[in-house]
Amino acid sequence: LLHQAAFLKSAQIVEQCPPDEGLEVAFAGRSNAGKSSAINRLTGQRSLARTSKTPGRTQLLNFFTLDEQRRLVDLPGYGYAKVDKAVRMQWQEHLDDYLARRECLTGLVLLMDIRHPLREFDQLMLEWSARSGMPLLILLTKADKLKFGAAKSALMQVTKTLKDHPAPLRVQLFSATSGQGCEQAWDQLAEWLRI
Ligand code: GDP
């Protein structure tokens, strides 16, 4: 089903989102975390979510349909220094709004570069998950960039830091390049989307 993903629409504000029905899983991550690459890999489509985009032009919620009842959402990423503070605050507001209001959201995939985990943006998403009880799948991306031992140790470190997280949480290694972690991520998405 994930391979059937097709671009549906972009929304700048919650009012432009598709009707709040069915099931939705969202992907979030700082700019450059590897979010687009992960979405493309998981859906088996090379250019569904555009990789290497122009900063500032992609700060939209992008919706992809799987079938009539199921969707993936690419949430805006943060982290580009080039964008001024006022604009960033505005994205933050729209993102908060989406997270607070979206009833059909059943899970959140948080992507973090394995070499730079748990930055400010990630903490915000973790806090929101803790408050709302939203289940989280954390993908430590670009795992292929580290040797096996270093990747394993990064995984253990993040897992340990988050051991008291009050919402359901899974942390795993992921590589869009090698495909590492895809099977487990698919399993989690299938559960959330009741596929
Ligand atoms: P986004 O801004 O979070 O959507 O990040 P992108 O998917 O555009 O990836 C940012 C950069 O990291 C690009 O140059 C990708 O080619 C690279 N990248 C993404 N995933 C991987 C991965 O699994 N392994 C490696 N080696 N590079 C990756």
From TrEMBL:
GO cellular component: a single term: cytosol
Q: Which InterPro entries does this UniProt record tie to the protein?
A: G_ENGB_dom (IPR030393), GTP-bd (IPR006073), GTP-bd_ribosome_bio_YsxC (IPR019987), P-loop_NTPase (IPR027417)
Identify the cofactor(s): Mg(2+)
PROSITE patterns reported for this sequence: G_ENGB (PS51706)
Coiled coil ranges: none
An MF annotation (GO) of this entry: GTP binding
GO BP: any one term: division septum assembly
Instruction: Enumerate the spans annotated as EngB-type G domain.
Output: 21-195
Q: Which interval of the chain is the signal sequence?
A: none
Q: Which UniProt keywords apply?
A: Cell cycle, Cell division, GTP-binding, Magnesium, Metal-binding, Nucleotide-binding, Septation
Q: What protein family is recorded?
A: Belongs to the TRAFAC class TrmE-Era-EngA-EngB-Septin-like GTPase superfamily. EngB GTPase family.
Q: What does this protein do?
A: Necessary for normal cell division and for the maintenance of normal septation.
**HAMAP family the UniProt entry points to:** GTPase_EngB
PANTHER family assigned to the protein according to its UniProt record, in alphabetical order:
ENGB-TYPE G DOMAIN-CONTAINING PROTEIN, MSS1/TRME-RELATED GTP-BINDING PROTEIN
**Name listed for the protein in its UniProt record:** Probable GTP-binding protein EngB
